[in-house]
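Bench notes, afternoon.
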Amino acid sequence: MPKVKLAENTTCRILVEEGLKGTENQCIALARALNIAPETTYVDLRFPWTKISPPVLWGAGHAYKNAQTLFSSPFPDIVIASGRKSILAALQIKKASKGKVFTIQVLDPRISSRHFDLVIAPDHDDITGDNVIKTTGSLHNISPEFLKQHAGDYVDELKQLPEPRIAVLIGGATRKTDFTTDTAQHLGEALKTLVKNSGGSLMITASRRTGEAQAKILRQAVAGLPHHFWDGHGDNPYFDYLHMADKIIVTNDSVSMATEALGTGKPVYVAHIGTQGRRIEKFHDGLAKKGYTKPLSDRFEDWQPPVCDDMLSVCQEIEKRYKAHKEAQG
């Protein structure tokens, strides 16, 4: 459901690097929460701009292979940009529009926030400023209402599983740590022990980062238990898993998975599959301290997490600032 309602004719363009699906999904989620229909333009930088970090704020006309598409009018009312390669494009569009375009940067741009109208970044990103909105984690549309509306073909099948139904969202290897076969074996044994102690069933989805050997180990570990293991074929049952789950387990390698799990309002447990680096560790430490999550153990606790919904406050702040921006533009 939209969190606010901007004018029906409000136009929006998303700027991201092609292939950064998680980043693009955050931008799309924000646009949908604002009740506007975005179009996405993928930025395509030339060398040497591809190697310059943080980005230099000049030469946009030469920096992008698709400059004609990016910088031709008509310009949108709002630009939602994310990722280092989108920054110069967003600033050039604002300049070309003579300041009329309202620019929103999602995630820390690694340059001063003053270059944008708004920056939306999670608490574990080290950025501050009068125009910075801090969030618990990633932007998303997940809510009980959203999941009910988007219930898919797996629901009837999942209803046959014994309760409590436990959604298990598994990531995998990252730049900070490998997801080894030993780690997969340990996680599989932990899931087996948990079901034996607490009853219920498992609904498991792996990712491209999990690895074929690791997924096979996990599948073998839960073979004797009531479960549904998505094999990667057909529609992804991710939303149906979240919708039907009584409890959710997420591995500690993904901010997006954890944040989306929290959006369900259901108890979330974090499975440690390796040290993920300062920012991600800070994120998970913050969730635990605020009572949003608990570490995975050999049995479930009887608890209910507090509500975690950043989108409403984020959208209300955007609505207020965008209105002021429009009024200042005349």
